[in-house]
Amino acid sequence: MDVPEPLTEEELAGIEELLAATTPGPWYVRSLDDDHAMCLVAVSTVPDTGLGERWPDFDHHEIVAATLVQQPRYVDVVDERWDENAAFIASARQDVPRLVAEVRRLNRLLAAGRVAGSE
């Protein structure tokens, strides 16, 4: 397995720019339903109520992404990992900033070790 090159500060800044351009978080997975988007698995800016609301009982402005729309079947994936994909997308909104901060923290520690070791 190839070891990837370390992320540069420019790459980390690029990731942060992409993140800053997204809808503010946190994001949540929601299971919704209606006649036009049957069994909608969505990523939303508000938590799931567990009620499987039907439109117009949910605000479409809260939906960031969808991983499954069964009727008509125009949002789907062959491996049927709709819930898993939605959970990943939703958690990425919170996890990516933490990962960028952790990479920077570790880079500072490595740099400090190099400076201390060179004396």
Name its key features.
119 residues, alpha+beta, three-stranded antiparallel sheet, elongated
Q: How does this model look, in words?
A:
The chain is an alpha+beta fold. The chain has one domain (9-117). Helices cover 40% and strands 13% of the residues. The chain is built from two helices and three strands. The chain has helices spanning 9-20, 82-117, and strands at 28-32, 40-44, 63-68. Strand 1 and strand 2 (40-44) form a beta hairpin. Helix 1 (9-20) packs antiparallel against helix 2 (82-117).
List the topology elements.
Elements: H1 9-20, E1 28-32, E2 40-44, E3 63-68, H2 82-117
Antiparallel strand pairs: 1-2, 2-3
Helix pairs in contact: 1-2
